Amino acid sequence: MRKWPVTVALLIFSFVAGIVSQPVATLVTAQAASETTATSSSAATLDTETTASQVLAQDNAASDDESSTETTTATEESQTTDSSSDVATSSSDSTDTNESTSNSSATASSVAKATKSAAADDASNIGSGNVGTVEWYINAAGELHLAAGDFGTDLRVHQNAAESPWASAWSTNYASQIKKVVFDGAVTVSTNTSLKSLFAGLTALTSVENLSQLQTANVTSLQGMFLGDTALTSVDFTGNDLSHVTDMSGMFKNCTSLGTLATTNWNVSSVTTMADMFNGCTNLTTLDVASWQVGQVTDLGNMFASCSKLLSLDLGAWDVSKVTTMILMFSGCAALKTIGDTDNWQTTSLTNLGSTFINCAALTTIGVTNWNVSKVTSMYNLFSGCTSLTSLSLDNWQTDSVTIMSYMFRGDSSLTTLNVKNLKTSKVSSLASVFYGCSKLKALDIGDWDVSSVNTMASTFFGCTALTSLAISNWDTSKVTILSSTFQGSGLSTLDLSGWQTNLVTTMATTFKSMANLTDLDISSWSTAKVTTYTDMFASSSKLSHVKLGSDFGFKGASMALPTPSTTAPYYGKWQYGTKGSTYTAAELVSAYDGTTMAGDYYWAKQGTVNVVYLNEDGDQLATATLNGPIGDAYTTTAKTLTGYTLSETPSNATGVYTDAPITVTYQYTGQLTLVSAPTTFDFGTHTISADTETYDLTAQDADLTVQSTHKNGSNWSLQAQLTQDFIGTDTNRALNAKLYYQDESGQQTRITTTGFTPVITTTSTSKDQVDVSQDWLGSGAGLKLTVPAGSALKDNYSATIEWNLSDTVANE
């Protein structure tokens, strides 16, 4: 039983005499007619012959300079002219049959010649001329008409300059005026079998009419035939014999308006190069070349490059056994979703795979598993930018001849599986950006790669944010000179490079920059002796908390950006040699590090932590405090002054030394029973004197009677009361024979006397909250009651003093 200080209140009561109340143009050209022979019909009338001969005479007069290459025709024309002239000056018919026949021949030839001249000599024509015996003119509609004839060797001078006769730099250039090409007769290629650059650079050309009149049976080259014809929308080779063509390189290069091309039945069996054939056909959406016999082709470089709208290709049946280069073959085919089943292509002659599939962003799979790449030397950019590619298996590839793998998988951001374990890399000199941006690649089994010939590893693993492990500690890096951004932005948390030799390295800038997860780094074998570029070597790798440095390592200055350790407990912003050695700020370590005496492991220095808790009897935390300091330093804790509680126990480890493990110090407090507030006056009111015994209720009190127990829940406490004196009249000084009671909620009364404290309220604690025990005492009901016997009261003011006392019994005490 514990008792608490007494509180006193004045009881007042009065009697009076009365009662007182209260968020592209069709070219219409006349076909250039060959001169008519003597076998022509003689059925023409005299008038017609005369007219024709006059026209012919005029035409011959204007054509004295024509070539004599067509001997037979010229002779016949001369004969016809003489005969016609005779007929024109005579009024009777000739009796010479041969002469008549000759006249008839002249008539037919003259009509044809006149028709041709009418179009070719139209004053509105833009230009005219000849290539070999092929006469041409360009009409006002922009139609280039080609008459029957043979190109001879006239194309060569233009071909040597890789230009079209109509887009020449040293003669009139019609490149922007020719909208359509029309073959008006059979055009042959007898001496020079090349049609290289024939229509190249005709930027307004939209179509070709009667292309089948171009006799291509003995043509060997179509190189750059339509190169740069950016307005060309259609061209039809279905009526042409391409069986002797060996060169189709650049044939449609940069024909940016070409949407479709009928290629299904082309005979390409003699072609050896298709390099750049469709390069830059950015509007081409479909292309059927599935049945092409490409067994003689050696060069497919850039063939489909930049065909950015091409959706699919079926090349599975192609014989590529003689192909030596596929450099940039599908480069920039951004919409290409399939190239067919190419897994079993026979690629035994292949030597160059540089950028073959670069930026094929829609390809999700590529059949290359069984390719023979034993002669390939370059795989530069091979799969770079294949952003939809999810997996590749190259374990069967024989890469013994490869010397460059730079950018091989660069930007393959969807790649999750990459089997490259068995690649032979002993001749590879560059691994720059080989895995750059492979942001979903979680693992790489490349620990057995022979990198002894590699001289650059710039950005090799840059941006491999999902990469969690990389076992490459034993790589022979003795020839490496560049390590800039090698691991920048990768997701590795631990990186062991303890076997790497960096004696020749000159560049270590941003090597480990922005490795958000990196905590442990072993570069104990690294030498910085030849390093001249080192800015931001460790920058923004803010979690790097352990680095192992060797005797040949030296910091080159603050620009290496060694991270500053955390200041969040248990760390306090310093590096520490080992776990108990000297401590340094990042700047201090960079400045002080000397490999000859300081080589070893450096960790973030840890603080010791002391957690101080203040508990009550129920084990509840009343307050907490945390102390931090260098491990080994002394600490001191203190008790707290806590309202309603008394310190009951000071812990033995209130003072001590910081250690690796957190220390807990517990202060124990005992609760208190407190009379928080009490009235100073209880007023029973003013009443008229009664002849009967009366019991009066409280009418007022000037404060609440409030109790708080902070003891253990379940403790009992009691409120006790006693009168220090009976009620005495102020004026009469006469005692009032009145009795004071406490009445509980059930109506049971307990008398409060002057003879000792009487328990009036006893209760069990269920919380630490304050309790207002007098909240219902005014008026009838529970509370203090005053009984005045009949005849004992006089007119006066009566008062008495009541004392309150608290006592408690602690649970289980």
- Overall SS class: mainly beta
Q: Can you give the mean pLDDT?
A: 87
What does the radius of gyration come to? 55 Å
> What is the CATH third-level topology name of the domain at 2-18 and 673-809?
Immunoglobulin-like
CATH architecture of the domain at 2-18 and 673-809: Sandwich
Total strand count, please?
34
InterPro entries: DUF285 (IPR005046), Liste_lipo_26 (IPR011889), LRR_dom_sf (IPR032675), MucBP_dom (IPR009459), Surface_bspA-like (IPR053139)
Biased composition (Low complexity): 69-106
Signal peptide: 1-25
Organism: Lactiplantibacillus mudanjiangensis
Describe it:
This is Cell surface protein [Lactobacillus paraplantarum]. Pfam families: DUF285 (PF03382), MucBP (PF06458). Residues 69-106 have a biased composition (Low complexity). Residues 609-670 form the MucBP domain. The protein starts with a strand and ends with a strand. The protein is elongated. It is built from 6 helices and 34 strands. Helix 1 (46-61) packs across helix 3 and helix 2 (71-89) crosses helix 3. The chain is mainly beta. Strand 29 (739-743) and strand 30 form a beta hairpin. Strands 12, 13, 14, 15, 16, 17, 18, 20 and 22 form a 9-stranded mixed β-sheet that branches. Strands 1, 2, 24, 26, 28, 31 and 34 form a 7-stranded mixed β-sheet that branches. A 5-stranded mixed β-sheet has the order 3-4-5-7-9, with no helix packed on it. Among the domains are: 2-18 and 673-809, Sandwich (Immunoglobulin-like); 246-342, Leucine-rich repeat, LRR (right-handed beta-alpha superhelix); 607-671, Putative peptidoglycan bound protein (lpxtg motif) (Ubiquitin-like (UB roll), Roll).
